[in-house]
Amino acid sequence: MSLLKPTPKVCSWTREFDNPGSLATYVANGGYQALRRVVTEKVPGDAIIAELKTSALRGRGGAGFPTGLKWSFMPRAFAGDKYIVCNSDEGEPGTFKDRDILRYNPHQLIEGMAIAGYVLGARVGYNYIHGEIWDCYEIFEAALKEAREAGYLGDNLFGTDFCFQLHAHHGYGAYICGEETALLESIEGKKGQPRFKPPFPASFGLYGKPTTINNTETLASVPWIVQHGGQAFLELGKPNNGGAKLFSVSGHVNRPGNYEVPLGTPFAELLAMAGGVRNGRKLKAVIPGGSSAPVLPGSIMMDCTMDFDSIAKAGSMLGSGAVIVMDETVCMVRALERLSYFYFEESCGQCTPCREGTGWMYRIIHRIEHGQGRAEDLDLLNSVAGGIGGHTICALGDAAAMPVQSFLKHFGDEFAYHVEHKRCMV
Amino acid sequence: MATLNIEIDGKALQVESGKTIMDAANAAGITIPHFCYHKKLSIAANCRMCLVQVEKAPKPLPACATPVTDGMKVYTRSEYAIKAQKAVMEFLLINHPLDCPICDQGGECTLQDLAVGYGASSSRYQEVKRVVRDKNLGPLIATDMTRCIHCSRCVRFGQEIAGIMELGMAGRGEHTEVMSFLESQVASELSGNVIDLCPVGALTSKPFRYSARSWELSRRPSISPHDSLGSNLEVHVKDNKVMRVVPRENEDVNECWLADRDRFSYQGLNTPERLTQPMLKHDGQWVETTWQEALEFVAGKLKSLPADRIGALSTPYRPAEELYLLQKLMRGMGSGNVDHRLRQSDFSLDDHAQGGFWLGMPVTYMSRLNRMLVVGSNLRKDHPLMAHRIRESVRWYGELNLINAADDEFLGKVHAKRIVAPSQLAAALAGVCLALAELKNQPVPAIAAPYLAAGSVADDTAKKMAASISSGETRAVFLGNMAQHHPSYAQIHALAQEVAKLAGASFGVLGEAANSVGAVVVGAVPHRGALGQAAIKGLNARQMLAQPLSAYLLLGVEAELDTHDPVTAMASINAADFVVVMSPYKGKSLDYADVLLPIAPWTETSGTFINTEGRVQSFAAVVKPLGETRPAWKVLRVLGNLLGLSGFEHNDSQEVLREALGDTPTGNVQGFLSNEVSGVAAIPPQAIDGLERVAEVPIYQTDAVVRRAPALQMTRDAALPVARMHGSLIEKLGLAENGRVSVRQTASALTLKVERDDLLPETCVRVPAGHPLTAGLGPMFGPITAEPA
Amino acid sequence: MLSPESLAAIDAEVAKYPAEQKQSAVMSALRIAQTEKGWLRPELIEYVAEYLGMPAIAAYEVATFYNMYDTQPVGRHKITLCTNLPCALMGAGEIADHLKQKLGIDFGETTEDGRFTLKEGECMGACGDAPLCLHNNHAMHTHLTPEKVDELLDKLK
Ligand SMILES: Cc1cc2nc3c(=O)[nH]c(=O)nc-3n(C[C@H](O)[C@H](O)[C@H](O)COP(=O)(O)O)c2cc1C
Ligand code: SF4
Ligand code: FES
């Protein structure tokens, strides 16, 4: 496989090669051709945005926002500085797909960002890389160096007047920096505290300048779309859910890992690719889109296809495509305790409901898990979660509330059992 | 700007686009609960208390941060909105200690007030509450950090208003804590404002701590007696004692802020050093006496002396009524020996000025200037809130240019600066003048001609400044305290005037003290009377103190601290036969006075300050005079009567004011103010061979009250004087950094600690004036020697 | 306070950002300083802040906001184990028990000989390779088993 022919491996095709992340592998298989063509042929930005719209590419960072539409918000004609920023701060529990793009296909991301720079009128881009995957930061820096030396980044690319410089910026241990405005604050050298929107980054972004932010996988998909057209991408997936997507499958499966499959692939198929439930056990529950997505019982999941619309219909979110699989041995109270600790630990602390409420929820669940639950605790938990959700600056508040509400909804009896019997049901 | 139609709680409103729901609600008198929102600070939207229902919005929106859109329908009190607000309130309270009974904020706490409306009666939170360690932020601000609700107002204040980020929120999530770096004491001269900003009792006034409950206090309006802004105060009184001072909002003057000096100086009112009884010196012994006896004694003594052998000196910190009566008294006796310009040394403009010097514009304009040139000013410390306004101009892309003898941190962007020895100040200004003439293709003004003749050319900095201040839409040139105290003030003023003219800029003098403008307006100057009327002329402050007169009448003056050259001043005063000191304090005057008359500080008398923009601000007494203390205007009135002078029959201070300024004081004052000077001959200042002194009056040494305010005296700004020098000078003189140096001007030598300041000119030794420790040194300007101690 | 190499590395980071945005390099600068000095003592934070022309408290905010900075002393080897749900499902709990028992310390503690500090980490974005840990922030060790943990600890002197 390569970028030369349309394949359902949009971002992961280099894995078939010996030296997947190298510039040589990438270029030999059609890499940087899309960039060269748009720049040298001066393809109008509008045309590329139109292709993106046709492709039905939806943001791979979690919210699933249509990328073509997002790009069209950028004041491209604005004469001053503008920025394109890539969100590689992958820290959503269960998600580890962008790491593989950085490791095994960094040039496709670089090419995607350069095309974005061309379309959006940005001369500088930053890629914000999760601090804990330090080797990826170094790999990406090395790839940038290669690209600069080969003339894919820098001034007057391909002899035109198009200039684009790209830099890596690393995080250092803060989940919240995955939120796009927290990420911008972090690049500015501050605490990663989300900004209230509006204004949106498209008008007031990095250093107050118009900025477009996309996820790693989103941007890495762009060269494919430019190469093969939006229609081809759309046809990979299903209407309104264009393309293939990387799914990070973790938890109780035999072969955890990333699987790139067309959107609309049945969950059962994906589960089978990951080797099925470990030790032949029964599937109990699945979190289909990263820890912030509501949990779904295994039975409901088995009827879903892996795309934004199907998962939403089932009452959860495709999110970042992180599929956390839990078998029958899992205590749901304990699982939720750990997740709620995560949101408590990672709340940036600026807004009241999240700063105060995440700790409160964690402490209640912790009590229940440790046999000190009270009869009124389940209602209280639901009510506290309700007090957080929809009341915060960024979606972390909702992300903290949703697991609680969904665990209680689908596995309330387990919680009740814990409260009553001071011990676990499983 | 487009006008949008919106509806809040069913009320149809028209709102300018760009406004938020909060703005619209405030304008319509609809209260939306909030903590983090503050009209002067950036929008943080972090407390979430202001959540409201907006039709068609999928979730409640923060009113403070949500821009209005046409047709928007907002519900601030709907069930949906209240539910969100109550949820937020519950979260705010779960970790709050609810220790209202022992909290200084009790009774004036936004959290307490709102909790009554939105809080539940009992807590559903059964877990352990968070406890946050208190921080030591210095002598002014007390902390109870467990009460903090993380609204971030204090942090934003530092970044956005004070210009210096001293407080931050360290940590993350629930563990976020407001603190200063390494518990360093906050040093901003505006720091006390965070006390007002803090909506709960996390940051409170340290000097006020536990001394009264808010509901026991009566709140009385007043005017600050310190810098020339005339900040509006609310003085809080209990049992006839001033307990604290907070700002009284006045958008045109101090907005909602106060400088720390205005806020904490009241502590200087309640000191044991207060003079509470008239006293006479009998055979070198002080004895308490009655007013009757004291004033008769003074009158008798004065009558026996030739009027032109008497000198009357006042500080510019006294109310206008007193200054008016003082000059009236002197002139009634037949002498024009009256002055308040104690730190000035060049009075030659008295023959050339048309009116009273002033800011040249309303104070509010200082917040939106595009181009500024400030000459000889320690802006931040001399005029803390005007410096804030200039910072605001700078933040709005204004360009600030500075010519000064020291490079103190301004806390904002400086476009161009020139730091020169004081003797070079005029030349530096002349450089800009030459550059402007060239730029504008205009003849070189006569006042700058000698500099051109002497081969002076405009260098790049001068050109940069010239280009800057002649561009932009609103421009101003300001002279600071250092310029006004300068031995070549007339030259500097005349040069600045030409610079302003060439640049098409407005020209202003930043008044030194609360009543610097007022004192000139009411004629407390030797060359003319009130509102510039002709009057008996006499000696100016320098002349009065250069040689001993027979008698001195000192109004609020601490001569060893308040004068340009304390050594000469004290020699003259000590040599005089008769010295009358009218002051709220005993102080050093116990050594040199013959009569001590206890007069009221500004809180115990009515009076008027005229600020630097000519704003006439009258105030009433907020407490009764302490002991036998009397308002000085009454003392002077009685003295006038005892001297047999006519026209001393005033019934109240307003009557005095009307006599001085007429029935339309404001208009008459404005008509008299002018910075125009004409006919000043060009006399470039003499060069100084060797080292020269740079002296500033430290912010908490400016006047008698603030000198006695204990908490302010514990701040870093009140640290003991040191000798600051450029590193190369330290080396050249064989001194050691942080070692000792012996400095000498005219009289005795003084040993001080050496501190390195590479931002000073290499020929300067910077030793503050106005401080007891350095009073024996000599004039604020001129040659100085330094050698290893 | 920092070696010429570290300063050069900081300068290279500063160069990534617009000239008036030096503060953008603070995360890198703190990381470089910490790597050289072991942990971020306040003077070091102040030094970095001054180097970048930002208020010390602003740099301190950054140092205390991001988990991977150590504003307290740590052992020569800091082991940060992810215990988040995906890792927990794949055995992070047992690895945690093993590490604690082996080192005789709990999360957040340092061995008496100053060799090891054990920390509990949040999702590192590598859940497919769980259980996993970070050694001194920058080296990831994946697919941990008690045996692999023993091997790792033996290697770290
Ligand atoms: C708490 C929180 C964490 C997030 N973490 C990530 C992340 O790790 N990676 C990511 O790409 N987007 C993350 N997002 C979503 C981003 O804010 C943003 O929507 C996304 O980067 C946009 O890119 P896309 O349109 O290409 O998806 C997060 C959002 C929230 C609220
Ligand atoms: S919701 Fe939580 S993480 Fe998001 S801004 Fe508010 S406090 Fe920070
Ligand atoms: S006042 Fe609006 S969120 Fe605080």
In short:
The complex is a heterotrimer of chains A (426), B (789) and C (157). By secondary structure, chain B is an alpha/beta fold. Chain B is built from 26 helices and 32 strands.
Structural description of this entry:
The complex is a heterotrimer of chains A (426), B (789) and C (157). Chain A has 426 residues and is α/β, with parallel strands linked by helices. Chain A is built from 17 helices and 11 strands. Chain A has helices at residues 23-28, 33-40, 45-55, 67-72, 97-104, 106-120, 134-149, 180-187, 216-228, 230-236, 267-273, 298-302, 308-313, 332-346, 352-369, 377-388, 396-421, and strands at residues 83-88, 124-129, 165-170, 211-215, 244-251, 257-262, 265-266, 283-287, 296-297, 305-306, 322-327. The N and C termini of chain A lie far apart (45 Å). In chain A, 63% of the residues are buried. Chain B is globular, with a radius of gyration of 28 Å. In chain B, strands 14-13-24-23-22-15-16 form a 7-stranded mixed sheet. Chain B has a 5-stranded mixed sheet with strand order 2-1-5-3-4, sandwiched between helices. The N and C termini of chain B lie far apart (68 Å). Chain B is α/β, with parallel strands linked by helices and 789 residues long. In chain B, α11 packs parallel to α15 (489-503) and α22 packs across α23. In chain B, β15, α8 and β16 form a beta-alpha-beta unit. Helix content of chain B is 28%, strand content 18%. Chain B has 26 helices and 32 strands. Chain C has 157 residues and is an alpha+beta fold. In chain C, 45% of the residues lie in helices and 13% in strands. Chain C is built from 7 helices and 5 strands. In chain C, strands 2-3-1-4-5 form a 5-stranded mixed sheet, covered by helices on one side. In chain C, β2 (109-110) and β3 form a beta hairpin. In chain C, α3 crosses α4. Chain C starts with a helix and ends with a helix. The mean pLDDT of chain C is 97. Chains in contact: A-B, A-C, B-C. At the A-C interface, β3, β5, β11 and α14 of A face α2, α4 and α5 of C. Flavin mononucleotide binds at residues 59-63, 65, 70, 87, 89-92, 176, 178-180, 213-215, 218, 394-396, 399 of chain A.
